[in-house]
Write a structure and sequence with these properties.
about 270 residues; alpha/beta; Rossmann fold; six-stranded mixed sheet; four-stranded antiparallel sheet; globular
């Protein structure tokens, strides 16, 4: 048995900032999104479209608002101003249609929970936990773990795994949720090369199945090579569009200032 993946409609356009090239409506959209923490602005007037069957990378320095934006897209953080829309409907709380994979540093790895139970959390928003876990859910969870080569670790406590293995389990949880939108916060950080390759393959399979993928990444090369659309973010959107157009010296300097080391000679001027 394999974890079920239900294809959605194919993409009909590309997102460039808040403008669409094509006639299709975005799967997810932010309009005038602002987030303030007391007197500090974390996000300012974020207007973005995320298309069906498209992978978007969020690129920016630490503190740029990437994680904050992902939490707003997931519905776990309410914006100060503006709205998040999912298929044209306002999103005000977590939805089973949206899967969120947090940064590893945000997870309590000492919590006494097994690998299988972590994967089963992918069904938590769709089913009641007042009753025992159905056998079918356990079978599907094991199948999702098998997709990321972690099924043999099902009874192991999640904190006993390596960083790469932990990331694979959280990807399995997202697979089991069978969401239409998959959000990932630094999914390649601190993991080994085989895990990076496996995660990239899983994300590409999801994209081909019609899912909308959004991930945060500070590695410019990885973000450029593994996404259809790149959003350069530093509390506001510096630019958004195809990586070949967006990744210019001027845009990167506007996004990172002097905080990032990149080979400016290898990148085109705007």
């Amino acid at each position: 048995m394999t974890a079920t993946v239900i294809p959605s409609s194919s993409p009909s356009g590309k997102a460039v900032g808040s403008q669409l090239i094509g006639s299709g409506s975005p799967r997810m959209q932010t309009v005038g999104l602002c987030v303030h923490f007391e007197d500090r602005s974390a996000l300012d007037d974020i207007c973005l479209d995320f298309q069906t069957g498209e992978t978007t990378s969020l690129v920016g320095p630490n503190g740029a608002g990437k994680s904050t934006l992902l939490r707003c897209l997931d519905g776990i953080l309410a914006p100060t101003h503006g709205e998040v829309f999912l298929d044209g409907q306002p999103l005000h709380r977590p939805s089973p249609r949206v899967a969120y994979v947090p940064q590893r540093s945000d997870v309590d790895w000492k919590f006494p929970i097994s690998v299988l139970d972590v994967a089963l959390m992918g069904r938590a928003l769709r089913t009641s936990r007042l009753f025992p876990v159905p056998a079918r859910d356990r079978e599907d969870a094991l199948a999702a773990l098998a997709q990321v080569r972690m099924d043999r670790y099902a009874p192991v406590q999640i904190g006993a795994l390596s960083g790469g293995q932990q990331q694979r389990v959280f990807i399995a949880r997202a697979l089991l949720q069978n969401a239409e939108v998959v959000l990932l916060d630094e999914p390649f950080s601190g993991v080994d090369a085989p895990t990076q390759a496996l995660v990239l393959q899983v994300l590409d399979d999801l994209r081909l199945a019609g899912k909308t993928i959004v991930f945060a990444k500070h590695d410019l090369t990885m973000a450029e090579r593994s996404a259809d659309v790149c959003v350069l973010l530093n509390r506001r959107v510096v630019d958004a569009g195809p990586p070949s157009r967006v990744m210019t010296v001027r845009n990167l300097q506007s996004t990172f200032g002097g905080s990032a080391a990149f080979n400016v000679e290898s990148r085109p001027a705007p």
